[in-house]
Amino acid sequence: MKSQTSEILLAGVLLSSLQAEPPKLNIISPLAIEKGVTQKILIRGLNLPANTQIHFGENEHKILRCFHSRKSTPPPNRLNKLVTGDTQFTLELTVPPSFEGSSLPLFLVTPEGKTKTASIQILPHLQWEKNNDGSFEKAIPIKPGTPVHGTIHKNQDVDTYKISAQAGQILVAQIQANTIASALDSFLYLYDDQFHILASNDDHGQKRDSKITFQIPKNGDYFLSVLDAHDYGDPVLHPYLLTTELQNPPAPKVSFDFPGGNVNVLNNDPVNKVLRFRPIKHKNRGWDCWWYFKVEGLSKGQTWQFQLEGSGFTTPRQAAFSTDNQIWQQTAPGKKEKNLITYALKVPANTLWLAWGPPFHLDHANQLVDEVAAAKVGAKKFTLCTSKDGHKVPALRWTPEGGKDLPAIWIQARQHAWESGSSWVCRVLHNGWHPVTWMPHG
Fold first, then answer.
1. Residues 119 and 197 in one domain
2. In this structure, is residue 380 part of a structural domain?
3. Does residue 44 lie in a domain region?
């Protein structure tokens, strides 16, 4: 009885070892096809017997296919068959122009089960990599938005592409290979026109495909190089899809929802770094000369052109700017052309305030009047009037000692409402420099 039990157990072990392994889908080459074009497709996998079925999901009735061959092909270049597979199918596939969708699911079925589902990319236009020797001199020009299908054909092979971009644009370059069905473990490099490395990426996130996101520093040509991280290559096993996109950077945020704020933004161009504006016109409020606003989302060190539309008193020779809304400086003299003056400024911070002059608004006036009244110099605070918006206008009154008429010096600032700098001069006459400080440019 004991002997029979042992024999049964041994037979069970032998039977389980002889059972076929489930199928595996490893490689699809190419990874993408164009609509309306008949394309030869190579499919590689493991444990794929002669009765293996190739399926394309719910879209099978919408495509044309012609099966050619199945053969056993051991992996080259000392690659592991668990990565490359050891059986290869060849077929022709045609996706009609009317096909809806951007991908075509593909999976294999054997008596032992079903493989994972991979997706062949279906594209209206596709650029195919040809005669790419990897050199910068013969780099293949590509256009953003047009996917490129390439292959690392042999060991230590490199493919190099050239793309033109403008300063400020954000380049997004991405490799799809291993995440679809390729043995390529990609490595992606970005170079400038002097062939200096600007960015590189091996694995993006938790995946073995590469991705670079980089803001272009200046107008010109840039180069992308694709290779295998382990220097392997094969014309069937190492296909890839390169997609590129040039995005415009987000426009900086302009606001003026604070005391004294006023601006009408006419153009906010983050690519060319131009902000064009003018004051808002207020009916029955006098000349539209004063402007004062905040800009957020700039990049420190970039040079922006702040273009002001207007004439006469609206366009001061130099604009006022601040990085904290407290300490103010002047730009270099603006360049004037007809009714437009341009202030060029190398941005000193990511947030900036700009104004006709260093703002002196109601809070500053109240603070000054309160300080003078508290200094016991014979001055008393009173309300001179109320503005159209309901704001009380503070003022000071001096009463001569003993009721005698004494000589006095009258100093007046701001003949016009927007001449804020003169108010700061009077502020200085009271008790010297204040935390809100005017700093001349240079």
1. no
2. no
3. yes
Confidence label for 437 from pLDDT (cuts 50, 70 and 90): very low
Q: Label residues 139-176 b or e (16+ Cβ within 10 Å = b).
A: bbebebeebbbbbbeeeebbbbbbbebeebbbbebbbb
Q: Is residue 85 part of a domain?
A: yes
Tally of domains in the chain: 3
Residue 440 clears pLDDT 60, i.e. is over it: no
- Spatial separation of the C-alpha atoms in residues 170 and 245, rounded to whole Å: 8
Among residues 47, 45, 65, 46, which one has the least CA distance to residue 55? 65
> CA 361 to CA 266: how far, in whole Å?
25
CA 21 from chain center: how many Å?
A: 46
For residues 204 and 286, give the distance between their C-alpha atoms in angstroms, rounded to a whole number: 59
Peptide bond into 30 cis (omega under 30): yes
| Domain hosting residue 338, numbered range | 253-355
Same domain, 234 and 293: no
Angle formed at CA 276 by CA 308 and CA 388, multiple of 5 degrees? 65
- Same domain? For 118 and 187 the reply is no
The CATH number of residue 110's host domain is 2.60.40.10
- Burial bucket for residue 354 (CB in 10 Å: 0-12, 13-18, 19+): buried
Identify the weakest region by mean pLDDT among 124-128, 202-206, 410-414.
410-414
Are both 258 and 159 inside the same structural domain?
A: no
Summarised one tens digit per residue, pLDDT across range 181-198 is: 999 999 999 999 999 999
Query: How crowded is the C-beta side of 316, counted as CA atoms within 13 Å?
Result: 21
- Of the candidates 171, 124, 175, 179, which has an alpha carbon nearest to the alpha carbon of residue 149? 175
- State the residue for tokens 């889908």: 25
Cα dihedral 300/301/306/312 (nearest 10): 110
The residues with which 92 forms a beta bridge, in sequence order, are 40, 66
